[in-house]
Amino acid sequence: MLEMYAKLAKNNAKKSIKDYLIYFITITICVSLFYAITSLSSSSYELITEESYNFRNLNLTLQYSTYVITAILILLVAYVNKYMISRRKREFATYVLLGAEQKSVALMFFIETLVIGILAIIAGIFVGTLFSQVITALVLISAKQELVFSLKLYMDTIGITFIFFISMYCIIGLYNVIVLRKIKLIDMLNAHKQV
Fold first, then answer.
1. How many angstroms separate the first and last alpha carbons of the chain?
2. Which tens digits make up the pLDDT trace of 62-89?
3. In Å, what is the CA distance from 154 to each residue of 45, 150, 186, 190?
4. Which residues of 87-115 are buried (b: 16+ CB within 10 A; e: fewer)?
5. What is the DSSP letter of 183?
6. Distances (CA, A) of 180 to 21, 54, 102, 172
């Protein structure tokens, strides 16, 4: 039975690779934007100094930008997650018809998205390092200062980014478990027939 599930999961993973690629790219972009903005307020950040720019204005701008970006990211991740569930209802129906418990299917989906999410966070941090350089360049150009580049990872910002996104994944994962356990078998069968 386990062999059959493993084979089925492998085949479904191949079919879902395009969806997961879109999911991975979306999360990577979200993480990179979050990291880029947050890194500018890191205690180790030294590229923009008091002499080059008014820190009060910059901090205020960063604070509001972080709030707006965080709200957008939460909505975007929730939307992508909902999209993934709707795209895979047929697969979930197959598992349930073969005898898998709905909570097991929900747990499997949670683990899949968590693993992809962690990989996207790692990729997003590296892309975010480049984005932070672009933001720094824009700030320095607007202040008519000499451009300074430094591809540096900020540990405090990495910690904040991981905590934020892992927490969000756990909340969304819990929501998925509840939703998938409540989906009636008839709904899954309908989704199976429609695709």
1. 25
2. 667 778 888 888 888 788 888 887 777 7
3. 8, 11, 50, 49
4. bbbbbbbbbbeeebebeebbbbbbebbee
5. S
6. 22, 50, 7, 12
CA 155 – CA 37 distance, rounded (Å)? 14
Q: pLDDT under 50 in the chain at which residues?
A: 195
Type of residue numbered 75: L
Average pLDDT of the chain, as a whole number: 75
Instruction: Supply 68's token pair.
Output: 């707006």
- The DSSP string of 29-83 is HHHHHHHHHHHTT-TT--SS-TTTS-HHHHHHHHHHHHHHHHHHHHHHHHHHHHH
Both tokens assigned to 28: 């990577």
Interhelix angle for 17-39 vs 102-142, to 10°? Answer: 40
Residue 138 tokens read as 């824009």
Residue type, 148: V
Query: From CA 91, how far away is CA 108, in angstroms rounded?
Result: 12
Q: Beta-carbon neighbour count of residue 158 at 10 Å? A: 19
